[in-house]
TrEMBL record:
Gene3D superfamilies recorded: alpha/beta hydrolase (3.40.50.1820)
Regions crossing the membrane: none
Domain (KANL3/Tex30 alpha/beta hydrolase-like) ranges: 27-205
Pfam families: Abhydrolase_11
PANTHER family per the UniProt record, alphabetical: TESTIS DEVELOPMENT PROTEIN PRTD, TESTIS-EXPRESSED PROTEIN 30
InterPro entries documented for this protein: AB_hydrolase_fold, KANL3/Tex30_Abhydrolase, NSL3/Tex30
Name this protein carries in UniProt: Testis-expressed sequence 30 protein
Domain of life: Eukaryota
Length: 219
């Protein structure tokens, strides 16, 4: 279902992937610095989640400024929270690369509100540092988040060195899990494996983590 979400004097293009049965939890998903919501990994994940009963709303926000992307993400969260069509108990925020930085920033900003609508964060290829600039880590939001976090990263990601992410994760207050895509780079490309094969691994990991966290919430 295509929608246009008001954002200032513009609109954000977005698409709902809707499960057959009514969903009580949803995922909001956005892209990295390049591309848009039709990036193949995002489409694949959205379709997979909807076919397994989880509503997924993915949106496009062009702009290379993290503060701007964060503002847009926040607008989409509000939109879904107030939606009469999909009355959800909670959502998980998810993004690829720069989109995951924006998602983390939204969660940190909204964590001051006593609001449990946001249930967790999914970071696909979180860009922990610029290539070859490991001294400057983008970890400030991650260290302040309290809700569960899943990282899915390539073990050969030039923007997220394995030991550095593990070190940051060990300092996080939030419950967290890291799933490494063996030999994957920042674009999740793995020599000798098809894109579909890698995406299947990512989709299964994300869904099983979501399911665990939704079940915990219901206990």
């Amino acid at each position: 279902v295509k929608v246009k979400i008001p954002f200032g004097n513009k609109y954000l293009d977005a698409i709902f992937s809707v499960p057959e049965k009514k969903s009580t939890y949803g995922v909001i998903l956005t892209h990295g610095a390049g591309g848009d919501m039709n990036f193949p990994h995002l489409v694949s994940l959205a379709v997979y989640l909807a076919s397994h009963g989880v509503l997924c709303l993915r949106f496009t926000c062009k702009g290379l400024n993290v503060a701007y992307r964060t503002k847009a993400f926040k607008t989409v969260v509000e939109y879904l929270k107030l939606s009469d069509d999909y009355k959800l108990l909670g959502v998980f925020l998810a993004g690829r690369s720069m989109g995951s930085r924006a998602a983390a920033s939204v969660i940190r900003q909204l964590s001051q509100d006593d609001d449990d609508f946001i249930q967790g964060l999914v970071c696909l290829s979180y860009p922990l540092h610029r290539p070859k600039l490991q001294s400057k880590l983008r970890d400030e939001d991650l260290l302040l988040i309290r809700c569960p976090v899943l990282f899915v990263s390539g073990s050969a990601d030039e923007m997220c060195e394995k030991q550095l992410l593990e070190s940051v994760a060990s300092k996080m207050k939030a419950p967290k899990k890291i799933h490494w895509i063996d030999k994957g780079n920042h674009g999740m490309v793995v020599k000798g494996r098809t894109t579909d094969d890698v995406m299947e691994e990512i989709n299964v990991q994300v869904f099983s983590w979501l399911r665990e966290n939704i079940e915990l919430e219901h206990k």
